Each structure stands twice: as C-alpha cells, then as structure tokens.
Amino acid sequence: MRVTKAIKNEQIHILETVYKDAKVALDYGNPFELLVAVVLSAQCTDERVNIITKRLFPTYNHPAKMLALGVPKLEVLIRDCGLYRAKASNLIKTCQILVDQYHGEVPENFDELVTLPGVGRKTANVLISVLFNTPAIAVDTHVFRVSNRLGLARGKTPDEVEEKLKKAIPMDKWSAAHHWIIWHGRKVCKARKPLCGECPLAQVCPSAGKEA
After folding, report:
1. Burial letters 72-103, b for 16+ CB under 10 A, else e
2. Separation CA 201–CA 182 (nearest Å)
C-alpha cells in the first residue's frame, strides 16, 4: 500500500474519532509533579510511575521539598522505577536549578526545559504541550512504532519521526494527536503482537497483518 496524503488524512481522522478523549495517563497536580512523572516514565510504564508518585507527591511536590530530600533518600522512594539512580540524580540537579534560577517554577520555554538534567526533547514537548498549550508532538516508543507502521511518519530516529508528523498533521492537532497515537499503541498496535484483526486503521495501514 502506498501511503498517500489522502490515506494519511484518513488515518488521522480515524485516530481522532476513536481516541478523541485521550489524555496524559500520568497523575499529577501541578507542573513540577508532571515534570517529575515524565522523567520517571522513561523505560517505565505509566502505571508504575503513578504508583511511585502516589507515595512521593503528597510530601515532595515542590522543587525545594524534593531538593531537601537529597539523592539517597529519593533513590529509596523511586527504586522500583527503571534507572532509578540516574533519575534521582537528575531530579535533584533539576530541583536545584528550578530553585536557583526559576523561583521554584517550571519554565514554559522549550529551550530552557531541555537544559534541565534528565529532560530531553520528548519530555520537554510533553510539558509545553500539556502544561502550556504549546503545539508539540512528543515521540515516545509508542508514537515512534505506530507512526512507522502506519506510514504516517517513517523515520529511523524520534527526531525524524517528529518532523514528519508535524508535516502530516495540522498544527492545531499536534498536541492531541500525540495522545491519540500513544493510546492506539497501548491498546491495539502493541509492540510484540499488534491486534490487527480488531484495528480500526487496518484498511489504511500498510503493515496490517504483517507484524509478528
């Protein structure tokens, strides 16, 4: 199947129709909590992150409070999260910067966000999109996989897929589309065994029935 612009438009329409109410699955109560949750979510499921933050946020929901906790104690609180040592170190460093340079607030600017330890392009895109209503598409493993399988945006790197998604999807739908694609990846277009037989996009997907 050749994935034309018309097919891509149909893919986007179906995703929007099926997942129109999709939103971030991480639990958070303020911008700092979302930043922490997204950092923790790297190589960790959202379900696991929500378990961890449920015990973390009632007390340590501000950069100054988490900074006072220190790396060793933070490691203990998040140790059931993958890469917990690196994440604890990065979060404490980020807390120090937020307290020293931003009065304890999460910056709204993408370029400032990516200077924070542990905050890469994906995390920054999630933050500016969810918190500050800035059009952005964060490419995680689900978005990368689904976009390539659909032919909606083929690329060898997350950055390449992000740029192609921005061309394929109208800007006013970027932030929402990020959630549509993630949820499709979680529920249907799974990594190891995609559920092609029950996929609403099967008729417009060049990979339908071909994945192991």
Report:
1. eebbebbeebeebeebbebbbebbebbbeeee
2. 14
Range of the domain at 45: 31-130
Domain presence at residue 186: yes
Residue 212, pLDDT above cutoff 80:
no
C-alpha span between 49 and 196 (Å, rounded): 29
Which among 106, 212, 129, 111 has a CA at the least distance from the CA of 139?
A: 129
Is there a domain that residue 211 lies in?
no
Q: In the structure encoding, which two tokens stand for residue 203, read together? A: 């008729």
Q: What amino acid positions are annotated as catalytic residues? A: 122, 140
N- to C-terminal Cα distance for the chain?
18
Q: Classify residue 146: in a domain, yes or no.
A: yes
Query: What digits encode the pLDDT tens for the residues 60-99?
Result: 999 999 999 999 999 999 999 999 999 999 999 999 999 9
Domain membership of residue 176 (yes or no) is yes
Question: How far is the CA of 119 from the CAs of 12, 15, 94, 115, in angstroms?
Answer: 28, 28, 9, 7
Structure tokens at 7: 């097919």
CATH number at residue 159: 1.10.1670.10
CA angle (144, 146, 150) in 5-degree steps: 120
Query: Does the pLDDT of residue 21 top 70, yes or no?
Result: yes
C-alpha closest to that of 154 among 8, 20, 22, 14? 8
Number of folded domains that form the chain: 2
